[in-house]
Amino acid sequence: MPSPVQQDPGQPRMRRSLGVKDGVAIAASSTAATTSIGIGMGSLAAYAGRQTPALLLLAFLPILGIALSYARLNRTEPNCGSGYTWVGRSIGPWPGFLTGWVVLIGNVIFMAYTGAVTGSVVLQFLNKLGLHSVWGLRLDPSSTGISTAVGLVALVVVTITAITGVQAATRLQMWLLIFEYTVLVAFCGYALYTGDQPFSLSWLNPFDIGSPQALAQGMVIAVFIYWGWDAAFSVNEETRNASDAARGGLIALVAMLGLFLIGALAFQRVMSTGELMHNGPQALTFLGSSLAPEPWASLPLAALMCSAFASLQSSVIPTARGALAMARDRTLGPVWQRLHPRYGSPAVGTLVIMALAALLAVLAVGIPKLNDMILTAVNSIGLTVALYYGLTALACAVRFRSSLRDGMVRRLLRDVVVPAASALTLFGLGAYLVWDYATMSDHFEASPDNGWFMLLLPALFLLLGLATAAWAKWVRRAPYFRTGRGTDADALTLPMDGDAGAPLPRPVES
Q: Once rounded to an integer, what is the mean pLDDT over residues 123-148?
């Protein structure tokens, strides 16, 4: 049986110097609570209304099951390929490749639209400073074109910082997180206390959501809002201990639940549902101006700007490392595994990802309103995220199905029942939405209200992924498609930074 492709010993090596704190910073920055609250609550309110807090609680349950599956698999087989490696070994190489593929494509789309969001936030900040036009060009934060142009500059900046190494990036992200979460908690806590919208227990009742379609759509958007905690599992080769990645991801996920609930309740204490939907990506700015005079009213906007930059940067990191894992197995080209000679990061792959995101952002200028672009991206990514999360949880249930024979109830629940239930929940949501999109429209139109358009984007991603997989199997003859196994992370010799780390423990199947 052919062995997986090993890294060329002459190539630069990735440095192992990250701990739990770094994992939390990467996962929290990638989830981007401030950005999700600032621009996502309006999208959720469009489907869930005043039951947005209930929807966030409900969506957390399958996501927690997915996170526990990641932690269990990571303890057995630490690898920066994460779901791509685990699904390939447990279910098969084709589902495994698609898992890695949708992570790669989903992150590129996310970076494209987050770049535009970052540009919009910068423009809002400039408007706050009294600058509304430059050389006769109106600096409109709701314009996709102007926001995208500014966002492209942000993409270049975060790509440079990502190339210089994960540790340097996480130091910057930690300080950004401290600032933005301090501002977010302070303003949202004050809003909870002073808001004039009466609190109702129905806000926490998911059964008050209007229809099954609204519930399913809202759940997929909520899954997207939580998306990002798994970025901590993408830096295993740079983490001192494999369990640090799991702890970092789980800590960040639980913290995100608390922040999302505080944000959702605070927004609804200050704004009606109509106001929340109308303000869209500028809702956090509206909250700040409603609660405080200038210059304090601009602090939430500054926090949102920090969050958007950190989210962009933390999206580049796991995407490039996931592509690195696929390139080691020859399922992607060798360009993705070229490491920087000084920083030890996958520099060329990072540049390629930035270029693809920039190209997609420019193409998205065809959607004239930023709100429409956000909703289109969120729906498309939400379906693909549900797919790869579900496949990874299913891989956990399949790999540890021997618990059924062992009769150990605790292990059975942890390793099989919870992962399988979480996977089936996400698959069911995705299948329902595919059916709903396919039947809701009778013509095609590039609009977030058109079901055929909403289906087109995920379908194109999957078809392109299948074509790429076919090329890797029959032309590149990647051994991954014969073995289903990714390159063993322990087989790579990684340098230490003094006494900063220790080798990863050998995987244990128990």
A: 86
Max mean pLDDT range (5-19, 71-85, 194-208):
194-208
Q: How confident is the model at residue 77 (pLDDT cuts 50, 70, 90)?
A: confident
- Contact present, 189 and 39 (Cβ < 8 Å): no
pLDDT per position as a tens digit, 5-50:
344 444 444 444 455 566 676 777 777 788 888 778 888 888 899 9
User: Residue 261 and residue 36: Cα distance in Å, rounded?
Assistant: 12
pTM value is: 0.83
Euclidean distance between CA atoms 56 and 218, whole angstroms: 9
How far apart are the two ends of the chain, measured CA to CA in Å? 25
For tokens 């927004």, name the residue: 267
Taking a C-beta distance cutoff of 8 angstroms, is the pair 392, 182 a contact? no
Distance (Å, rounded) from C-alpha 107 to C-alpha 354? 10
Task: Report how far Cα 214 is from the mean position of its chain's Cα atoms.
Answer: 22
Distances 60 to 66, 106, 256, 290, 412 between C-alpha atoms, Å: 10, 20, 10, 30, 21
CA distances from 319 to 239, 323, 423, 495 (A): 17, 6, 22, 22
pLDDT tens per residue across span 204-241? 999 898 788 889 889 988 988 898 888 777 665 555 56
Q: Beta partners for 327?
A: none
Instruction: Choose among 238, 247, 281, 298: nearest CA to 70.
Output: 247
What burial letters (b/e) apply to 265-288, b meaning 16+ CB within 10 Å?
bbbbbbbebebbbebbbbbbbbbb
